[in-house]
Specification:
Elements lengths: L3 E4 L5 H12 L3 E6 L6 H10 L5 E4 L5 H14 L5 E4 L14 H29 L2 E6 L2 H5 L5 H21 L4 E8 L5 H4 L3 H8 L11 H12 L10 E4 L7
Helix pairs in contact: 1-9, 3-4, 4-6
This protein binds NADPH dihydro-nicotinamide-adenine-dinucleotide phosphate (NDP).
The site of NADPH dihydro-nicotinamide-adenine-dinucleotide phosphate has 28 residues, from helix 1, strand 2 and helix 7.
Pfam families: adh_short (PF00106)
Organism: Noviherbaspirillum humi
Family: Belongs to the short-chain dehydrogenases/reductases (SDR) family.
Amino acid sequence: MARIALITGGMGGLGEAICIKMAALGYQVVTTYSPGNTKAEQWLASMKEQGYDFRAYPCDVASFESAQECIAQITREMGPVDVLVNNAGITRDMTFKKMDKVNWDAVIKTNLDSVFNMTKQVCDGMMERGWGRIINISSVNGQKGAFGQTNYSAAKAGMHGFTKALALEVARKGVTVNTISPGYIGTKMVMAIPNEVLESKILPQIPMGRLGKPEEVAGLVAYLASDEAAFLTGANIAINGGQHMH
Ligand code: NDP
């Protein structure tokens, strides 16, 4: 039976590439979308036209109850989740001087609490079955900090603390836990940055002189999810064109 891969935020720039890659490798792919997202049906239909039979469930990853309901439904209707990719995330950038509690909480809840909310629903089952993969999508800005992103950098750095601690706890149960920290990836969001800003401010920071491709991150997710990656756990893998090395 095909393994089930749940990718949160699969309708976003990186998430879609991850869904496509995992489907190509034979996983049964399921994704989530925010309960308010009105474009979910449209996305599913356009994926279907391209030959991808994805399932999608509404879930506010920032809410424990929503995560619980969503994964209970997925388990009932499809089966237990074998690979969880915690990919959903948001930014609410502003300098710390302007940062208010609302924007701090929104980013921490959506990017970091979500990792607890989702992982909590699947981790025990993975351990019982003796196989599982948890892959957390962090960011280069969680590794190096970024101006205007105290909230985002804190949440993304926190994800990796979670990864390392949980990796220790589940290491003997066939479950691996890893973090991926992408640099600038050419998703629609990043491609919307004016070309002159891209050329003068962003690309000079990247030794490879180009943005990453969503498919390159998806390839790394696929590797971490594979049986070949069974000995790799607790790692934070940078994929940033050389922008930040540590
Ligand atoms: P997008 O904005 O394209 O996608 C984000 C996804 O997260 C959307 O599908 C969105 O779903 C979902 N999401 C947001 N809030 C919630 C919520 N409360 N509940 C459920 N789903 C939610 O971003 P990217 O694809 O670019 O980014 C994906 C991940 O990669 C993020 O965690 C981001 O921080 C990280 N990253 C991205 C980089 C880049 O260059 N693009 C670089 C480094 C890290 P919906 O639309 O339904 O709300």
